[in-house]
Amino acid sequence: MKDLIRFLSLLLILALLLPLAACAGPAVPADTTAAGEETVAPGEDPAPVFRTLSVETYRDKTRAGFLSQLIGFLTGFEFSVDSSGEPRIAMPDSWFKICQGPYAVPNKYCKRDPRLVKNASTGLWDIYIDDDYSIDIFNQYILEDMYARYGTFASRVIGEDWVKYNIYDMGGGNHSYGAYALAKNKGYSTPFLGDAENGNRYSHCGEPYIANETLGMSAAGMPEVTADMVDLFAQVTGDRDSYLWAKLFTVMYAMAYFESDVPAMIRRAADMVLPEGCWQREVVDRCFALKEKYGVNWRRAVAVADKEICTPYYGMESRVGETSVNCAFILLGLLFGEGDYVETLRIISLAGHGGDSTTPVGVGIVGVILGTAAIPDEALGYVWQDGKTEIINRAVPDTRSGVWMFAENLPERLKITDILDKYQKNFESILLERGGKIEDGVYYIPESLVTKMDTAVIANYGFEDGTVAPFAVRHGTVTAEAPGCTGDYSLKLTGAEGGSEAAAEISDLKAGETYRLTAYLFSSAGTTVSLFAEKTDGSGRVFSTLFDTQSYVRRILVFRAPAETVRIGVAFDAENPYKYALADNLTLVRIEETPAGTVSGGDGKWAVASDTDREAWLKLTFTNTSGKLADCRLSVDGSAYTVVPFRKTGKTVAEGEANVLYVPLLLGKGERTVALTLPKNVSVTAAEFLNVTDRFATEQ
Hints:
Blueprint: H1 2-24, E1 37-40, E2 49-54, H2 55-75, E3 116-118, E4 125-128, H3 134-149, H4 156-164, E5 167-168, H5 179-186, H6 207-212, H7 223-234, H8 241-255, H9 262-273, H10 279-294, H11 298-308, H12 323-337, H13 341-351, H14 355-370, H15 377-383, E6 390-392, E7 406-407, E8 413-415, H16 416-433, E9 437-439, E10 442-446, E11 451-452, E12 455-456, E13 472-475, E14 477-481, E15 490-494, E16 500-506, E17 514-523, E18 528-534, E19 542-547, E20 553-560, E21 566-572, E22 580-595, E23 597-602, E24 605-610, E25 616-624, E26 630-636, E27 639-646, E28 659-665, E29 670-676, E30 682-693, E31 696-697
Parallel strand pairs: 4-6
Antiparallel strand pairs: 1-2, 2-10, 3-4, 5-7, 6-8, 9-10, 11-31, 12-22, 13-16, 14-15, 15-22, 16-21, 17-20, 17-22, 18-19, 18-21, 22-30, 23-24, 24-29, 25-28, 25-30, 26-27, 26-29
Helix pairs in contact: 2-14, 3-16, 4-5, 7-8, 8-9, 10-11, 10-12, 11-12, 12-13, 12-14, 13-14
């Protein structure tokens, strides 16, 4: 009987305690320092959910990621060519020596100016600046300046700081025709700095993915934040496929703090930032297929990739250093390396093409996953030296002035530890702004739903099968002919009576939703090519135009889908059979535009009542019939803000014309006056202040 009474008493106590435990809410585990551990916020409300990362772990992973940039650069072979001038592919293992590649020591197979120099005074190794990590470092100064000045992300600072710090850099930083020149001489801001149409002659270069991928370490565990941030940074120097590659790899850096399954990470990152039915997505798929086909034989895989994936840009004769194959080699190195640090380093550094640039990207991701303990001591002896290493921010004495890479107004000697401090400081600024916390040496990083792009696949988007199918000729002459913007073919429209036109029906859209159609277009002198969307019966056409541009430039059309199936296409107005237009690399992505405030007014002056303290987009629908690019000053409350380049849209304005520009503005909450100095041939017919996204929560 006593035992029964004790048992009943215990049940009564438990019944009283359980409701109290429920009221107390879920407890945070005592040990919250392990990378990747998930928990919930303290208190009764289980949302938001956080992932935790100790400050020490973040610091270690970030150190490994940045040091791996240097190790990859000092190990990899860049553009090593054989006697015929063709690039050497899959170089022998005997060439592989950690931190002893062509940029570290003199090499008879690949002559370069060494960047690893013993300092006679200190006895330490100094590492001279190079474009493979110079802009990565500079970006941390930019982020620091953003949050110091505005307390939030402000893209205008990017262009301002390129001028302020007087950046010299290969490709995008060229002082005559690159991003620096457009920022200084024109006053442009991103995303206009990287456009070929605006005068950047280096928009095709690999600078976007070479220079920006470590931004993911400033948004650790927040890939969706990283994707938006790097889009603006990457479009400083390019408007071709390079900036999408930058988004892929930067997102992977952010993911690497909590994920270790490299193939799954690649797939998830591709879902987040690469439209289905685009060349980059096809390259990803081909790399997975090569890994499956060749098992551990990475040399055979890179040889096949060199033949099948290398697609030089329009106007480029050399295959050496081409973006697609370089990024394929990064992916193959990650897949065949299977998460092993040295093996990943070895494969990419020997694969070929731009190994000095590709190796840092790939091995840096593995470095973040594994941390500093995975880095061989011999490498740390060159690039870490117990934290005493310094990067020399000036040209190597023997380097030609045409390839100098440095920031004139940054310190001449950059301490590795100071650089890592900036990554950490900027991460903390971004984390706190995005609702995260820092408590007791632990970062609480908000966990978001896995997001992906909602894309409609355009079959034969690049016309590489030598036909224009599924595009059907409606009138005129349409063929698949060289040259393509990338690859061998593009869709070619030849002048004919009544013009030329080709269209394809695209199904499975969401009726009433907003879509962004992107293409690269080319127009003969004095003629107009249109990128259009319409109902399947040919009514309700809206279109974006390209006028008199004898090179490939990017054009977008934003439209609302009238039904689940729409007709998209290109049209050419010339009737002269010697005139032609070209179109290549079409993609179609659903986007979402939501108001960030209200806009009233017109004639180049608007009252914008902003609802947000963060940066949003001023969407301008416009026409420019002047026949030339029109630079228009934009002011906010009477103070100069940026310069907006309005591209030429044609000689006349037609019904359905929908040329738009998106200008990033940080206005803060409240009403502001936004004004543009518009010449007589430029008109803005609509202005909206919007938040824009092209990624959506994955359906569960």
